[in-house]
């Protein structure tokens, strides 16, 4: 059965691919944040495991191709590995349910190792599944067409590529929204089970759809795997060359010709063409090393930025959607507008030149990322080292005060109802401080632990000066754009404070509550109960990633009077500043990735496409391994420096590739095939003549 001139079975395959890509990219979008916030790993470990997983996903296709071609056939391989895949996604969803081991109900899992074990099992199964079916689905789709449907077949591959991007686009928008929901049985959490559960459900849908079309598919029998033949041919040539290494054996034109004793000329010629292309692949992994950091380092960069787009609140992991959106726009624009323009300008923009430009652009994208990182670093607070103390003074009284740090370290004037920023001192040098207001002076001695921040609350009234130390237990900027808030009670009575749904309990006069976490970008109602009177006020809009001390000054006539003191400034660099680096990287992907596969296919015989596809995917895997090695070995403490390092490495590789490309001569596989056909015909004719002569001689006897 056909529809619009296409085999009907194609539509099942395209829907299947859409669901599978949705499932994979959705899970991958939230993965690095799941490691960081749920499993509580640091940035480096999260990045390392993320890239290990991606590398695995690109190593397993070689296994999938061999299973399909030599043993199960494409259809059965897709079905059986999809079952493994669905199971992996389900395990992943279960691993992120914190109520699984949260017996004391404090909102964090008690047995983290169980969650780590489950999620690693899930990821290994997913890598087996997604990698194993990757080489089969597209080829299986191609098998559905007749030989005379060349036009429909190439249109199918375009639609197929589009369905991949549509799936990845929708899932990178939707999954982070699901992750940002609050859910949980005993305590409300970021909803990772939902963010992993929806991809798992879609994978199950994908499997059902694929099996539903079973009766319509053309299922080719497994033909034996060309990769295995090529490997054997190469292995035999090397072994044979090594055996005949002494001078008395004549040299052969090409080292692969040493396989001619065992393998036919055609396979040897085809293998030569493939190796020529694979040699060019050697520098390519460096491109993928940069490209795949969108999901790790760039997502972590977005967590320190401001995601407020007016009425929209963008999650850090949603910034990755910029890539698929731009791909869907850029691929047609580049094909229909940019390449024809370059042609008009009489520039010969060969495939290898396109790939070189792609590498150059990717390295520029990382320079852009480094520039953004430098701006972010300027806004990050500096916390005290182990031998330092940071002190902030809040004046809670109606008189100005002058504070002198002894011995003669520093003196500051603090206006009434105002506060200073944090001042950094060597803990060992601090002996005492004098607070002076009018004619009154108070001396306060230090007994502060090092490596901490402290707030000194001072209140001057008509008779005396009261000074109290308030301990700040904040050692890092709040993650995920959340805010920390605490209250200081500047009233003579005990008050009970709540903000939004969060209760701060009873706060004593001239003391501070502890800090509580609030999600970014919102306003909440602050309520204080004093001697059975309730006063309230709506807080100002807190930004993202800030910490505030809110001083309660007055509670009368149901009105609450508060002053804000900023302990940690909010994220001020906007996430929109990531768009330029995404744009440049997407342009790089369009000229690099699309061209790379086209070039490979044009330079090798049709039956060798599987080998090249495997080689291409291998470059992605190796690229992800490079990230592990570089990030692990570089020991750079500054993130911007690591970006510059990657940009420099890719630039160096780009120059090497340009030199290799300059010496590459393009071949036409069809010509080579035709020449081989011609030679085979001649050989057959010769053999026939010899045979006829022999037959004649026999008959004359």
TrEMBL record:
<dbReference type="InterPro" id="IPR018456">
    <property type="entry name" value="PTR2_symporter_CS"/>
</dbReference>
<feature type="transmembrane region" description="Helical">
    <location>
        <begin position="75"/>
        <end position="92"/>
    </location>
</feature>
<feature type="transmembrane region" description="Helical">
    <location>
        <begin position="112"/>
        <end position="133"/>
    </location>
</feature>
<dbReference type="GO" id="GO:0015031">
    <property type="term" value="P:protein transport"/>
</dbReference>
<dbReference type="GO" id="GO:0015293">
    <property type="term" value="F:symporter activity"/>
</dbReference>
<dbReference type="InterPro" id="IPR036259">
    <property type="entry name" value="MFS_trans_sf"/>
</dbReference>
<keyword id="KW-0175">Coiled coil</keyword>
<dbReference type="GO" id="GO:0035673">
    <property type="term" value="F:oligopeptide transmembrane transporter activity"/>
</dbReference>
<comment type="subunit">
    <text>Interacts (via extracellular domain region) with trypsin.</text>
</comment>
<keyword id="KW-0813">Transport</keyword>
<feature type="transmembrane region" description="Helical">
    <location>
        <begin position="273"/>
        <end position="291"/>
    </location>
</feature>
<feature type="coiled-coil region">
    <location>
        <begin position="674"/>
        <end position="701"/>
    </location>
</feature>
<keyword id="KW-0472">Membrane</keyword>
<dbReference type="InterPro" id="IPR004768">
    <property type="entry name" value="Oligopep_transport"/>
</dbReference>
<feature type="transmembrane region" description="Helical">
    <location>
        <begin position="154"/>
        <end position="174"/>
    </location>
</feature>
<feature type="transmembrane region" description="Helical">
    <location>
        <begin position="354"/>
        <end position="374"/>
    </location>
</feature>
<comment type="similarity">
    <text>Belongs to the major facilitator superfamily. Proton-dependent oligopeptide transporter (POT/PTR) (TC 2.A.17) family.</text>
</comment>
<keyword id="KW-1003">Cell membrane</keyword>
<keyword id="KW-0571">Peptide transport</keyword>
<keyword id="KW-0325">Glycoprotein</keyword>
<feature type="transmembrane region" description="Helical">
    <location>
        <begin position="194"/>
        <end position="217"/>
    </location>
</feature>
<dbReference type="Pfam" id="PF00854">
    <property type="entry name" value="PTR2"/>
</dbReference>
<feature type="transmembrane region" description="Helical">
    <location>
        <begin position="643"/>
        <end position="664"/>
    </location>
</feature>
<dbReference type="GO" id="GO:0016324">
    <property type="term" value="C:apical plasma membrane"/>
</dbReference>
<dbReference type="InterPro" id="IPR000109">
    <property type="entry name" value="POT_fam"/>
</dbReference>
<comment type="function">
    <text>Electrogenic proton-coupled amino-acid transporter that transports oligopeptides of 2 to 4 amino acids with a preference for dipeptides. Transports neutral and monovalently charged peptides with a proton to peptide stoichiometry of 1:1 or 2:1. Primarily responsible for the absorption of dietary di- and tripeptides from the small intestinal lumen. Mediates transepithelial transport of muramyl and N-formylated bacterial dipeptides contributing to recognition of pathogenic bacteria by the mucosal immune system.</text>
</comment>
<keyword id="KW-0653">Protein transport</keyword>
<keyword id="KW-0812">Transmembrane</keyword>
<feature type="transmembrane region" description="Helical">
    <location>
        <begin position="48"/>
        <end position="68"/>
    </location>
</feature>
<feature type="transmembrane region" description="Helical">
    <location>
        <begin position="325"/>
        <end position="342"/>
    </location>
</feature>
<protein>
    <recommendedName>
        <fullName>Solute carrier family 15 member 1</fullName>
    </recommendedName>
</protein>
<keyword id="KW-0769">Symport</keyword>
<feature type="transmembrane region" description="Helical">
    <location>
        <begin position="610"/>
        <end position="631"/>
    </location>
</feature>
<keyword id="KW-1133">Transmembrane helix</keyword>
């Amino acid at each position: 059965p056909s529809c619009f001139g296409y085999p009907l079975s194609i539509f099942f395959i395209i829907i299947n691919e859409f669901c599978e890509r949705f499932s994979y990219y959705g899970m991958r979008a939230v993965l690095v944040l799941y490691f960081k916030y749920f499993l509580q790993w640091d940035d480096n470990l999260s990045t390392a495991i993320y890239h290990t997983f991606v590398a695995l996903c690109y190593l397993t296709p070689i296994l999938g191709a061999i299973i399909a071609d030599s043993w199960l056939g494409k259809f059965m391989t897709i079905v059986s590995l999809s079952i493994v895949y669905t199971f992996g996604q389900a395990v992943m969803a279960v691993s992120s349910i914190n109520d699984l081991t949260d017996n004391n109900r404090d909102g964090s899992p008690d047995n983290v190792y169980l969650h780590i074990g489950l999620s690693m099992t899930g990821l290994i199964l997913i890598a087996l599944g997604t990698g194993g079916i990757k080489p089969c689905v597209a080829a299986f789709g191609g098998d559905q067409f007749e030989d005379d449907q060349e036009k429909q077949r190439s249109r199918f591959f375009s639609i197929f590529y589009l369905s991949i991007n549509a799936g990845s686009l929708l899932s990178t928008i939707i999954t982070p929204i699901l992750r940002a929901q609050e859910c949980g049985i005993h305590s409300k959490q970021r909803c990772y089970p939902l963010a992993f559960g929806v991809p798992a459900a879609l994978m199950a849908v994908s499997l059902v759809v694929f099996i539903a079309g079973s009766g319509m598919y053309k299922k080719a029998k497994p033909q034996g795997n060309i990769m295995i033949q090529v490997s054997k041919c190469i292995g035999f040539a090397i072994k044979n060359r090594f055996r005949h290494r002494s001078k008395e054996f004549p040299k052969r034109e090409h080292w692969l010709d040493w396989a001619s004793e065992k393998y036919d000329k055609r396979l040897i010629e085809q293998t030569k063409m493939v190796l020529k292309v694979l040699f060019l692949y050697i520098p390519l992994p460096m491109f993928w090393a940069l490209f795949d950091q969108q999901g790790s380092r760039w997502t972590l960069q977005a967590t320190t930025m401001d995601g407020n787009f007016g009425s929209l609140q963008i999650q850090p992991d949603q910034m990755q959607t910029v890539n698929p959106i731009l791909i869907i726009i850029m691929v047609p624009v580049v094909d229909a507008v940019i390449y024809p323009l370059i042609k008009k300008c009489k520039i010969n923009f060969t495939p290898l030149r396109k790939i070189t430009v792609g590498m150059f652009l990717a390295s520029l994208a990382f320079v852009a990322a480094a520039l953004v990182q430098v701006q972010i670093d300027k806004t990050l607070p500096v916390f005290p080292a182990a031998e330092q103390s940071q002190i902030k003074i809040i004046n809670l009284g109606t008189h100005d005060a002058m504070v002198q740090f002894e011995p003669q370290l520093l003196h500051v004037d603090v206006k009434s109802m105002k506060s200073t920023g944090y001042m950094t001192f060597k803990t060992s040098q601090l002996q005492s401080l004098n607070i002076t207001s009018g004619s009154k002076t108070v001396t306060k001695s230090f007994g502060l632990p090092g490596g901490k921040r402290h707030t000194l609350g001072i209140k001057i009234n008509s008779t005396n000066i009261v000074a109290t130390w308030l301990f700040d237990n904040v050692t890092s900027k709040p993650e995920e754009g959340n805010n920390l808030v605490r209250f200081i009670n500047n009233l003579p009575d005990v008050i009970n404070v709540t903000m939004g749904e969060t209760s701060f309990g009873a706060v004593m006069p001239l003391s501070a509550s502890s800090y509580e976490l609030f999600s970014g970008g919102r306003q909440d109602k602050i309520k204080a109960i004093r001697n059975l009177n309730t006063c309230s006020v709506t807080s100002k809009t807190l930004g993202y990633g800030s910490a505030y001390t809110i001083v309660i000054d007055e509670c009368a006539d149901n009105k609450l009077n508060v002053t804000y003191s900023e302990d940690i400034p909010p994220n001020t660099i906007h996430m929109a500043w990531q768009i330029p680096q995404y744009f440049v990287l997407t342009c790089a992907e369009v000229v690099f990735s699309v061209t790379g596969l086209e070039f490979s296919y044009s330079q090798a015989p049709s039956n060798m496409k599987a080998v090249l596809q495997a080689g291409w995917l291998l470059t992605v895997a190796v690229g992800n391994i490079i990230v592990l090695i570089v990030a692990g070995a570089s020991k750079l403490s500054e993130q911007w420096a690591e970006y510059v390092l990657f940009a420099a490495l890719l630039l160096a590789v780009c120059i090497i590739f340009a030199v290799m490309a300059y010496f590459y001569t393009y071949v036409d596989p069809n010509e080579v095939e035709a020449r081989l056909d011609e030679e085979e015909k001649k050989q057959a004719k010769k053999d026939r003549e010899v045979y006829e002569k022999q037959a004649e001689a026999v008959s004359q006897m």
